[in-house]
Amino acid sequence: MTTVAIVGCGVIGAAIAYELSRIPHVEVMVLDPQPPAQASTGAALGVLMGIISQKTKGNAWNLRQTSLQRYETLIPELEAITGEAIPFNRQGILKLVFEPEEQATWAALAEVRRAQGFSLQIWDADQVKQHAPHLDTGAIAFAVYSPQDRQVNPTALTHALIRAAQQNGATFHIGMAAEQIISLSQPPSPLQHCHQLKTTSGLLAVDWVVVAAGLGTTPLLASLHPSPTLSVRPVLGQAVRVQCAEPLGLPNFQPAFTGNDIHIVPLPPAEQGYEYWVGATVEFPDEAGAVAASPTQLQTVLEGAIALCPALKRAAIVEQWSGLRPRPYNRPAPVIEPLTGYDNVFLATGHYRNGILLAPATALRVKQMLLTKLGNSEDL
Q: For residue range 211-228, what is the model confidence (pLDDT) as tens digits?
């Protein structure tokens, strides 16, 4: 039996735990000092902007494409295993664009997506008004509709991944923090080999370690000598949940709406009314590394959302929250790779604003890295 310890139980750690728990003779353990789906996962809006992103090639696009394809099988798979529904909006994303000169860029992207087997539609203001009469089309130049992009509830997804992994034998040690990677050299190999994790509950013997700790990555790696140069820093985001007496727009057309980097995300109808998530701010730390939620920035987002959808002015705010996104410093997000200098430690961290979108692809990539190291192969 091969033991894999996953540090972190946000959506990334949970997705990795589920995929690895499906490998025969692999024992999966997950450690996190906080309850599942906290931190950046609990604060995310779950908008899966893959096809509508400007990424068209290389690693950035491959991860998005893999995730979108996996989501179409993953959601029904998890629902069948757990017996519980996961809120998963299949009505796409509608993006409002305000600059006419951007139309050529979006038209070119639509052609690329068509060649890749995806649909991306350019709508004029009249088409937007026909499909989404609640939106203010007075200032828009056009809109882009992506029917194959999705939105998922991050917390429900994470808990479903955990339950499915547990059914496969994975264990979750919530309230246990990893404090240090303990390693030794194994000549003639120049690489270090991690054989134990020092945790708040004692030493834990491991064969492999996956660091999916988000902002917890930096202090954990700081325990190593020499310490890796990777630094994951916080970017704060604030969002709200609002309640309306009636659905915004047509009841049978409720995609995620976005414009000026503001998202309006419909939730399943509740007994009290129709609810939407609105967000999110992007707030960077100061020179000392500290970041605090700014009421002014949240108010700017709310005013921007009302400008997109005037009916939100009558909505009641029923919840407000914030979370810290893990952003790698001086390198692209995310970081999915073996830890330099180690033969059995993988990094799966620093997803910044795309953790929910890229969770399935990240899990599959970690799975492939592990299988390759173990000398196995599997059709993923």
A: 999 999 999 998 887 777
> Cα–Cα distance between 161 and 73 in angstroms, integer?
13
Residues 58 and 155 in one domain: yes
pLDDT band at 379 (very low <50, low <70, confident <90, very high): very low
Residue 125 has pLDDT above 60, yes or no: yes
Residue 378 has pLDDT above 70, yes or no: no
- Residue 364 is encoded by which pair of tokens? 């599959």
Q: How many domains does the chain have?
A: 3
CB 202 within 8 A of CB 193: no
Q: How wide is the angle at C-alpha 29 spanned by C-alphas 39 and 378, nearest 5°?
A: 105
On the CB side of 240, how many CA atoms lie within 13 Å of its CA?
19
Look at residue 90 and give its three-state secondary structure: coil
- The H-or-E segment that residue 296 falls in is helix 295-308
- Global pTM value: 0.96
Helices (H) and strands (E) in the chain, counts: 9, 20
Instruction: Measure the CA–CA gap between 109 and 119, rounded to whole angstroms.
Output: 10
Question: What is the span of the domain harbouring residue 48?
Answer: 1-87+151-231+329-380
